[in-house]
Amino acid sequence: MCLSVYALGAHKIIIQVSPPRCLSTASLRAWQARGDCAVMNEPFMSAFMFQDEGSREVTNKWLRAETPTSFKDVEQKIVQMSHKSMVFVKEISFALLAYLKRNTSLAQNPDVYFVFLIRNPANTVHSFYKKQHDDQLINNFSYYVGFETCYAAFQMISACCINKPIILHAEDIYAQPRQTMEWLCKEIQIPFLETMLQWNNLGNEFTGIKEWYELKRAEHTYYWHGDAIKSTGFHTPNVVCELDSLGNPTYGEIANEKDRMICLEAYRHNKIYYDLLVQEKNKK
């Protein structure tokens, strides 16, 4: 294994990887509340959107003008920040996978820890569907639900990362926040702080530019992360989908039949990779 080109001795870098709608921003709030940790909200997403053909049409609408357009720039920013303090990076699975396919040097840095945050895809599909603009599903909806790319990223990290990747259930965080966050801090070999369990409502004017290294325009930051921005701690999500007697989603609450079928197919496809990640977690 080739060691990272970066100098040793920097503060720890925690990179949390998840599909969309896995309560990952609430987790970011907890790390921000520590007070000893810089946080970055989806920094690789801008480079992904600039380079992903399917995302180019919304790039200028979503991102601020000064956002980085290359994965290398983002990587260098993360490492630069880690020389001042511990860094927590929240990233979406398909954006991180696109970076890893080009460069795995962060994974080969002994100061870097990867945490894979997963949530039952029955609920993530439903939540992601509700966030689609103009009631129109994005092209390749199932891909952007994100569990296939999450598992692919996990495989790559497992093969080259010095520190063994950690898998964490979002359901455990909101059901047992103290126990789960204490366990996670122990895995990363840092002290747990009580401040990780409660934080302040950031209000309606929050942009995250300074606090989160936020690259999205303010209206899109609120659109995707508004609940977490106004949260004051971990809580059980209000929106859950309709399940059948076997525990599988029916998505009966989705009126558009075509959309309902797309969501069901997305669930079935992504559930395969969710189950594989659960199996990896259960190997311990």
Summarize the structure.
This protein is α/β, with parallel strands linked by helices and 284 residues long.
Your description of this structure?
The protein has 284 residues and is of the alpha/beta class. It contains twelve helices and five strands. The chain has a five-stranded parallel sheet with strand order 2-3-1-4-5, sandwiched between helices. Helix 2 packs across helix 5, helix 5 crosses helix 8 and helix 8 runs parallel beside helix 12. It is globular, with a radius of gyration of 18 Å. It starts with 12 loop residues before the first strand and ends with a helix. The N terminus is likely disordered.
Q: What keywords describe this structure?
A:
284 residues, five-stranded parallel sheet, disordered N terminus, alpha/beta, Rossmann fold
Describe the secondary structure blueprint for this structure.
Blueprint: E1 13-18, H1 24-33, E2 37-41, H2 44-51, H3 56-62, H4 71-82, E3 86-92, H5 93-100, E4 112-118, H6 121-130, H7 141-145, H8 147-160, E5 166-169, H9 170-175, H10 177-188, H11 218-229, H12 257-282
Helix pairs in contact: 2-5, 5-8, 6-12, 8-12
Our Rg estimate from Cα atoms comes to 18 Å
Uncertain runs with pLDDT below 50, 5 residues or more?
1-6
Instruction: Output the helix-strand order.
Output: EHEHHHEHEHHHEHHHH
CATH class: Alpha Beta
Q: Give the number of helices.
A: 12
Tell me the CATH superfamily: P-loop containing nucleotide triphosphate hydrolases
Provide mean pLDDT, rounded: 90
Give the name of the CATH architecture: 3-Layer(aba) Sandwich
> In terms of structural class, how would the helical and strand content be classed?
alpha/beta
Largest sheet: 5 strands, parallel
What is the total domain count?
1
Strand proportion: 5-15%
Oligomer kind = single chain
Amino- and carboxy-terminal Cα gap = 23 Å
**General form:** globular
Helix content: 40-55%
Main β-sheet, spatial strand arrangement: 2-3-1-4-5
CATH topology: Rossmann fold
What is the tally of beta strands?
5
